[in-house]
């Protein structure tokens, strides 16, 4: 039976990525999906969330949550283009409207603007900091450039050092692209060397469709757009996942937490994966622009996916609207037959709808561009996922898989010689 998006929608939390500086950024990363969103607001180049809107957002967002825990996600653009006083005001308002709720904050930054005062603020208030970094210098500096075209690796690593100095919890968010996708071991070993314990990596897939207002990136609703040169290929993505997984499953289970692998294991045991791309349905995580415009998802900030403005309609009403429910429900309902018949549907769930612009073997539209890569990974990881599922079912740690994995991979390598 197909699950309806409306079932239980009032008892699960909603999430919103707030953009207090809009799409403004001090960098000019070549593959950035958000920098050009400022062109949608030509009359407001400053893209600064007002104090009044901030107050309204925090009050309504807390009130809309059905659970004791409330998670705020501050995103960009570059979040640290807003002042420290702005975020001190955030904390004050959360205390004002919290009413006994457990408030948590996460903030995503490119790390180049971090200083001791920022890090002390994050430490003292218990904020989790996400750092955007694409691996070693040779990969990071290929696309993540400053406004003058210079590399940013040294500045990011300096920021990471400051976070470590002040004992701030941080995780790495890395983009896998056409350039770094062929060196999974070097990519993973770099993050191990930094002391990173929480690693998120995501494949970059963008299509180009020039618009009159200057925007270049295609919406999921657009057809006949060409693939951007920096996009990872399905084959790269599959090989990348398999080879990083082999590094992790033989040495780091329980020590380094890789979001993709944790989410896959969650699906393997029938739990919510905690990663929207691998979830059965979506639509519970919106994106809030600096002026109060709310969009269906952070990767769907296009006019056709605008839900409304929180200054005129409460955020809970917009996120639980019929329109947003239909958006989330479409992830499951729009799957082509090839996906519905796939042995790994439970693990993939068609991945993100924005990447479903390919065609199935029979010519049916709606296949995920990265399908072959995901299938290769799930097929490769299946025995190890089965092992960890069995360990969990017997209340044993999944890290027990490591010794078994080392033996299994050693036998496999011997057979290849």
Write structural notes for this entry:
By secondary structure, the protein is an alpha/beta fold. It is 38% helix and 14% strand. It has 14 helices and 14 strands. It has helices spanning 51-64, 84-97, 116-125, 137-143, 153-165, 184-193, 234-251, 259-268, 315-319, 322-333, 337-340, 345-348, 371-393, 401-416, and strands spanning 15-18, 69-74, 102-109, 128-132, 170-176, 198-203, 207-208, 226-227, 257-258, 285-288, 293-295, 306-309, 358-359, 365-367. The chain has a ten-stranded mixed beta sheet. α1 (51-64) links the parallel β1 and β2 (69-74). α1 packs parallel to α2. It is globular and about 65 Å long. The N and C termini lie far apart (47 Å). Residues 1-9 have low confidence and may be disordered.
Main features:
about 425 residues, 10-stranded mixed beta sheet, about 40% helix, 14 helices, two-stranded antiparallel ribbon, alpha/beta, 14 strands, disordered N terminus
């Amino acid at each position: 039976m197909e699950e309806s998006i409306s079932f239980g929608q009032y008892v699960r939390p909603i999430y919103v990525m707030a953009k207090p500086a809009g799409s403004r950024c001090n960098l000019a990363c070549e593959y950035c999906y958000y920098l050009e969103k400022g062109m949608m607001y030509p009359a407001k180049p400053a893209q600064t969330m007002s104090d009044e809107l901030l107050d309204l957002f925090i009050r309504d967002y807390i009130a809309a949550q059905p659970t004791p825990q409330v998670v705020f996600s501050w995103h960009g653009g570059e979040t640290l283009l807003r002042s420290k006083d702005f975020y001190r005001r955030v904390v004050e308002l959360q205390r004002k409207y919290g009413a006994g709720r457990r408030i948590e904050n996460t903030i995503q930054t490119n790390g180049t603007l971090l200083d001791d005062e920022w890090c002390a603020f994050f430490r003292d208030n218990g904020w989790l900091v996400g750092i955007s970094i694409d691996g070693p210098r040779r990969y990071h500096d290929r696309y993540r450039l400053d406004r003058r075209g210079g590399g940013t690796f040294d500045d990011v690593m300096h920021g990471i050092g400051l976070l470590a100095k002040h004992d701030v919890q941080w995780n790495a968010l890395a983009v896998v692209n056409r350039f770094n996708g062929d060196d999974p071991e070097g990519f993973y070993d770099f993050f191990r060397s930094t002391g990173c314990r929480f690693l998120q990596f995501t494949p970059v897939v963008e299509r180009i469709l020039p618009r009159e207002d200057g925007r270049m990136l295609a919406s999921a609703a657009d057809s006949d757009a060409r693939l951007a040169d920096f996009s990872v290929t399905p084959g790269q993505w599959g090989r990348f996942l398999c080879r990083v997984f082999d590094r992790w499953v033989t040495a780091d289970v329980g020590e380094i937490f890789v979001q993709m692998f944790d989410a896959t294991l969650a699906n393997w045991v029938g739990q919510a994966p905690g990663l929207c791309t691998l979830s059965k349905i979506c639509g519970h995580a919106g994106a809030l622009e600096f002026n109060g415009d709310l969009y269906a998802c952070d990767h769907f900030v296009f006019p056709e996916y605008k839900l409304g403005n929180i200054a005129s309609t409460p955020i809970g009403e917009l996120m639980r609207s019929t329109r947003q429910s239909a958006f989330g429900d479409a992830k499951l309902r729009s799957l082509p037959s090839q996906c519905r018949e796939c042995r790994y549907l439970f693990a993939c769930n068609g991945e993100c709808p924005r990447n479903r612009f390919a065609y199935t073997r029979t010519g049916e539209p709606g296949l995920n561009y990265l399908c072959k890569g995901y299938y290769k990974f799930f097929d490769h990881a299946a025995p190890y996922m089965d092992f960890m599922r069995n360990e969990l079912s017997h209340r044993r740690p999944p890290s027990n898989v490591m010794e078994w994995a080392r033996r299994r991979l050693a036998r496999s390598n011997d057979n290849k010689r």
